[in-house]
Amino acid sequence: MTQLFTPHDARATPLRRWPKTSYPAMLTATAAWHVFVLAAWLLAPRAWAWWLAALIANHAIFTVAGLLPRTSLLGPNWTRLPAGARNADAIALTIDDGPDPVVTPRVLDLLDASGVRATFFCIGEKARRYPQLAREIVARGHALENHSQVHVHTFSVTFPRALTREISAAQRTLEDVSGERPLFFRAPAGLRNIFLEPVLRKLDLRLAAWTRRGYDTRERDPQRVARRLLDGLAARDILLLHDGNAALTADGTPLILAVLPQVFAAARRQQLRFVTLREARAEDSSR
């Protein structure tokens, strides 16, 4: 009898879902600049102060870039949905920092009641703690994406090896608990460094930021949060709210629960439909 077997787990070598991109221009330029400065220092060591200043200036530039969540200077970054006919009337609702055992089930019920699909950027450690919620997110038709394993505040000053451990751990966790392998990554607080894009490239992930955010982790007035999200709302916008770490209104309601009905109503008035980032990607998988 012929024995059929698979040499290893299919998940260990999955097919790539993003085309390989070149390394970020800023990373290439920075490497070239370091080589140039080193050569210049060897040729003119007495001018060492100038060469040191040149290196400091270079580091300052990419440090500032890492503090700008919506910039693409450090690599591909979704700040809006891809252009094209399929996304011409679409917007995306993204929800970060969950799953939360109190807030997430209520968010899911609100989404169901309005027929809205959202993209949840989940923290791996929380998904491991509440696996039934991670599974329910996917079962209800939403997308589950990578928001790091532990959401450390020092993420933006982390070196490549630690970045790889942190992001790949979340990939494994989220796939294990939900059966769905994340396709997008969002950095904690949107902050990152020059090393992140090569790591995402290796892990077959695409960075996703946002078009509009409500600052609902620190703002207690739902009207202010809603205005930040909805003033100038347009097709292809990516909106950011939080089910984890959500601030509370004066009456103790998580901000996201007070704001979502206003977001849904505004989208209906403008005849905009909600899509997940995965659905929007079908428009142009090279972005």
Q: How many β-strands, per DSSP?
A: 8
Q: Gap between N and C termini, in Å? A: 48 Å
State the CATH architecture of the largest domain.
Answer: Alpha-Beta Barrel
General shape: elongated
From the 3D structure, determine the CATH topology of the largest domain.
TIM Barrel
Going by helix content, strand content and strand pairing, the class is alpha/beta
Query: Which H/E pattern describes the elements?
Result: HHEHEHHEHEHEEHEHEH
Key words describing this protein structure:
two-stranded parallel sheet; 287 residues; TIM Barrel; 2 domains; 10 helices
List the helices and strands and how they pair.
Elements lengths: L24 H19 L4 H19 L23 E9 L4 H12 L4 E4 L1 H6 L1 H9 L3 E4 L13 H19 L5 E2 L10 H8 L2 E2 L4 E2 L8 H9 L7 E5 L12 H15 L3 E2 L2 H5 L6
Report what the structure shows.
The chain is α/β, with parallel strands linked by helices and 287 residues long. The protein folds into 2 domains: 25-66; 85-281, TIM Barrel (Alpha-Beta Barrel), CATH 3.20.20.370. It has 10 helices and 8 strands. Strands 1, 2, 3, 6, 7 and 8 form a 6-stranded parallel β-sheet that branches. A two-stranded parallel ribbon has the order 4-5. Helix 8 runs parallel beside helix 9 (255-269). It is elongated. 38% of the residues are buried. The model is unreliable at 1-11 (pLDDT under 50).
